[in-house]
Amino acid sequence: MDKVESAKKAAAFRAVDNHIKDAHRVGIGSGSTVVYAVERLAQRVHKEGLKVTCVPTSFQARQLIVNNNLILSDLEITPQLDVAIDGADEADNKLTLIKGGGGCQLQEKIVAAAANLFVVIADYRKNSRVLGEQWTKGVPIEVLPMAYRPVQMKIESKLGGKAILRQAKAKAGPVVTDNGNFVLDWVFDRTHDWQQVNQEIMMIPGVVETGLFVNMAKIAYFGMEDGTVKEL
Ligand code: 5RP
């Protein structure tokens, strides 16, 4: 396993070991780091007999839960969660996050907001002093398909930078989220007050959700290059 994968795994295993207890209701994030969190959760459920109920943040997360024989629920049946564990594309020192590299930011934010504790797991490449230092692909913004053009224009004129319609590979057209929406990746050209910018973007008609997670994460685990895990 290469250094980055080992770092993801170390962070994910540490978070599950530190925060998941018997009878917990757990939000399961999306992305490649979360795969290791579910692996560890499944080990503990099947070896230690923990009873844990899992709520997914995407189709991918749902499949992970089902394929690992974990108990699957949803926010209708389980509207309050003890812990949500998720990855991030970038996290600054105050744990302001950019999420949605996989296009799952809407359900990820809803599930994180339903949890008493939101825990971030990531490898060392995601830990920045300020947002934009490492993640250059911008802030993912989920938009209603019919509104993407005016939203794109409003974001660029109000906030600067570029809001790029995310395209599927092999020129198959725009990426469509699990919720049937498009994603604009807003590549910003300066540092902002992220809370204020998040509110400004959310006010634009047609915007469904942003990948800016401000004041949501309580703790983050970063797997480091040297094999240690840094806690923030
Ligand atoms: C998906 C996400 C992911 O959590 C984020 O992209 C990090 O992914 P990975 O763990 O693969 O680096 O927000 O929408």
Automatic annotation (TrEMBL):
It catalyses: aldehydo-D-ribose 5-phosphate = D-ribulose 5-phosphate. GO terms for biological process: D-ribose metabolic process; pentose-phosphate shunt, non-oxidative branch. InterPro entries: NagB/RpiA_transferase-like, Ribose5P_isomerase_type_A. One of its GO terms (molecular function) is ribose-5-phosphate isomerase activity. Keywords: Isomerase. The keyword Isomerase applies. Its EC number is 5.3.1.6. Gene3D superfamilies: 3.30.70.260, 3.40.50.1360. Pathway: Carbohydrate degradation; pentose phosphate pathway; D-ribose 5-phosphate from D-ribulose 5-phosphate (non-oxidative stage): step 1/1. GO terms for cellular component: cytoplasm. PANTHER family: RIBOSE-5-PHOSPHATE ISOMERASE (PTHR11934). Belongs to the ribose 5-phosphate isomerase family. This is Ribose-5-phosphate isomerase.
